[in-house]
Design goal:
Number of strands of chain B: 0
Shape of chain B: globular
Radius of gyration of chain B: 23 Å
Structural class of chain A: mainly alpha
CATH topology of chain B: MetI-like fold
Distance between the termini of chain A: 22 Å
Number of domains of chain A: 1
CATH class of chain B: Mainly Alpha
Structural class of chain B: mainly alpha
CATH superfamily of chain A: MetI-like
Oligomer: heterodimer
Helix content of chain B: over 70%
Number of strands of chain A: 0
Strand content of chain A: under 5%
CATH class of chain A: Mainly Alpha
Order of helices and strands of chain A: HHHHHHHHHHHHH
Number of helices of chain A: 13
């Protein structure tokens, strides 16, 4: 093992802690101070505004739908990618990572170009059948699904690869059918990976801003989400309320991170 | 995808039985069909729409959008800032990963936890919290709002976890024996770092750098409140795309968006290659 001399070790430690504290730690402390400046006044002001409570509810509803869809898609895709061979498998595996590096603004634009009721490829046809996607919940759920798409797949794939398929083959040779194998062998093995994926997806979904700004139309009291309310409040000089809503969002995301980090060491693969 | 690539692939997958191209049962075939339909409707067709729309004014229209002075200023700013932040992350991310794996001190667990916060935090809130400490009413008397430095700051914040989280597991799994052997053969600490540790973590650093660069190029939310979105000064590509969308100019928006998509695709391919070299996907 490389052993750094004590002065270098201390220097590296200080640089690292100082950098992280200045970049993340201190700004977070400032947020808490500003949100609670004047006790709970900021929270009372924020919650007495029906647009704020509505935005929080919209965010929760959209996120829950997106997380459910992404979990089903993610687990299915992970099992298919690891346990099966099919043409294009590697391309699909790589493309699933794409949403992580695509700008939220580009995601919003992409959905607009296909599902907009005025000029989208499918939008006018869908609206003729009474399905409004853009500036409405379906589009918002799709945008949220898009940004959080790889999270469940990327948690489950390594676990599936590591446990191997010996147990599944044994179960199958003893006469278990596909559903029994999935329910009794595969699901228990990937249970925790799915939980991490769900928690990370939830954190990502609650916070999405750019893509939802475009797809939702940011209509106050209708399709406005909590992160969009933060921007509006801040720009309308209701900074206290902006900090209060931000505090709620940060508290949820920190809670998600805590859950993942507390659960993770229990998993043998870590 | 060509079969040539797939043939190479069977070796890397390990469990894949060579010579067997399809191992789908009827049930999993249906599942694959449904999943791919959703994936196409959600990701592939919308992204194809961007490329198609970008080309609707022909090649000249495409070039005109990208060479428009304001767009060009945004592209230049975004690329230089992203490179700068990625360089900072290569150094700081590797150091943080080193400290998290090899150092022991009180509060290390907390440091480990804090690293993930930028990933989970809503981007608009990231901008707001940075504004609280480095904005007009800064307790440190540092005001970066509406300057180029605000972009460096916001991008450094949102990309903090990437290199740390790719290097950390590689560093943790590094075989101590090799380092001991090098030491017993008389190598100095610096030589061990340079010849043993560094070569084994370089692929992980590269993977993290690619992710961090891609994230920086595409960032939007954290810049909204902090940078002031001033044309020619603090306007990044994603902001420019949004103003084209709001102005109803879909073709120009799509033209700039294809450029960003191309960068994202290059990063994805690079990651795929790096991860295959590292011998596992993660």
């Amino acid at each position: 093992m490389v052993r750094l001399s004590p002065p270098i070790k201390w220097a590296v430690r200080l640089v690292v802690i100082g950098y992280v504290f200045l970049l993340v730690g201190w700004p977070l402390i400032t947020l808490v101070q500003k949100a609670f400046a004047g006790g709970l006044d900021n929270f009372q002001a924020a919650f007495s505004d029906p647009d704020v409570t509505h935005a929080l509810l919209v965010t929760i509803e959209i996120s829950i739908w997106a997380v459910i869809i992404n979990t089903v898609f993610g687990v299915t895709m992970a099992v298919l990618l690891v346990r099966h061979e099919f043409p294009g498998r590697r391309a699909v595996s790589a493309l699933i990572d794409l949403p992580m590096s695509v700008s939220p603004v580009v995601i919003g634009l992409a959905l607009l170009l296909v599902y907009s009721g005025r000029y989208g490829w499918f939008g006018p046809t869908l609206e003729a059948h009474g399905i409004v996607v853009i500036f409405n919940s379906p589009g918002m759920i799709m945008a949220t699904c898009f940004v959080a798409l790889p999270l469940v797949v990327r948690e489950v794939v390594p676990v599936l690869e590591e446990v191997g398929d010996d147990q599944e083959q044994a179960a199958r040779s003893l006469g278990a059918n596909a559903i029994q194998v999935l329910r009794r062998i595969t699901m228990p093995a990937i249970k925790w990976a799915v939980v991490y994926g769900v928690v990370l997806s939830l954190a990502r979904s609650l916070g999405e801003f750019g893509a939802l700004k475009i797809v939702s139309g940011n209509l106050t009291g209708l399709t406005q989400t909590a992160p969009l309310v933060v921007e509006q409040k801040y720009n309308n000089f209701a900074q206290g309320e902006a900090y209060a809503v931000s505090f709620i969002l940060v508290a949820i995301s920190v809670l998600c991170i805590l859950v993942v980090s507390l659960l993770r060491p229990k998993e043998s693969h870590s | 995808m060509s079969t040539a690539v797939l043939n190479q692939d069977t070796r890397a997958v390990g469990r894949g039985r060579p010579g067997v191209r399809w191992t789908l049962t009827p049930g999993s075939g249906v599942a694959l069909g449904v999943a791919m339909t959703w994936f196409s409707l959600l990701v592939l067709i919308p992204l194809a729409a961007i490329v198609a729309t970008a080309g609707s004014d022909g090649w000249q229209g495409y070039v005109d959008t990208l060479t428009n002075p304001q767009s060009w200023a945004a592209i230049w700013l975004t690329v230089t800032q992203s490179l700068l932040v990625t360089a900072v992350n290569v150094v700081m991310g590797t150091l943080i990963a080193w400290v998290l794996v090899r150092d022991r001190f009180w509060g290390k667990r907390l440091l480990d936890l804090v690293i993930d916060i930028p990933f989970a935090m809503p981007t608009i809130v990231a901008g707001l919290v940075l504004l609280g400490l480095y904005g007009p009413k800064s307790p440190l008397a540092i005001n970066v709002s509406n300057t180029k430095a605000s972009i460096t700051l916001a991008l450094a914040f949102v990309t903090l976890p990437f290199i740390v989280r790719t290097v950390q597991p590689v560093l943790a799994e590094l075989d101590a024996d090799v380092e001991e052997a090098a030491a017993s053969l008389g190598a100095s600490q610096l030589t061990i770092l340079r010849r043993v540790v560094l070569p084994s973590i370089i692929p992980a650093v590269a993977a993290g750098a690619a992710l961090s660069f891609a994230r920086a190029i595409s960032e939007y939310g954290s810049l909204v409140l902090l940078s002031g979105l001033l044309p020619y000064k603090t306007e990044v590509v994603s902001v420019r795309v949004l103003s084209f969308i709001e102005g109803g100019d879909k073709t120009s928006a799509a033209a700039l968006a294809t450029l960003m998509l191309a960068v994202a695709l290059v990063v994805i391919v690079a990651l795929d290659v790096i991860q295959r070299r590292m011998g596992r996907r993660g």
